[in-house]
Amino acid sequence: MKGFGIVLYTGRADSLILAGVLAQTAAGYDIPVRIFVTSFATPYFMKDKPELRAPKEFEDLAQRMMAGMASMGVDSWYEMLKTAKELGDVKIFLCSMTMEALGYSKEQVDPIVDDVVGAATFLAEVSESQVVFV
Amino acid sequence: MTDVTPTISIDARGISCPGPLTNLIKAYRKAKNGDVIEVLATDPGFKSDVKAWVERTGNELISLTEEGGVIRALIKVTAR
What we know:
The complex is a heterodimer of chains A (134) and B (80).
Chain A: E1 4-8, H1 13-28, E2 33-37, H2 59-72, H3 77-87, E3 90-95, H4 96-101, E4 115-117, H5 119-125, E5 130-133
Parallel strand pairs in A: 1-2, 1-5, 2-3, 3-4
Chain B: E1 8-12, H1 19-30, E2 36-41, H2 46-57, E3 60-67, E4 70-76
Parallel strand pairs in B: 1-2
Antiparallel strand pairs in B: 2-4, 3-4
């Protein structure tokens, strides 16, 4: 695999965690990772983040999983992304359109984000990569 | 079986995926060819993960054992 792209759009707790796990693992393999944060994932990449949430129909499982992860001492999704960036070539791009649509400004963006871009930038970055949507 | 003495030891017991592999990778990046890395882990996924990692990176898995819930991997660094 030449590169690994992650489109992170749901903003759900399970998606954020999965993105963290996959990014950290790919970075460890020396695979370049490019993450495109868009739609409802956008608020979680601001300095001031909303609380993690899961879809209603999985509320019981989400509670169980989060409690289990806490007792196991698993890193948070944010920590995992930070580790991924320490380990390898990992870039996080924030979708400029959804950022504006949700009423955020560039000043509110979390420093973990490398750049606020349009879809064209992301697609050019992952033109030869495997891309997943979470 | 002759046991090889590790030159680097990593205790990843109690840490869950992807932590143990990340700790191994961090140590590997500082290692040189000929080093033997020992990893102790309790995450059940570590067994297959370490095999996949060794295969992909082209290093050598000397042994992979499990005793009392603790997985022990001995890896010879050959692909630095």
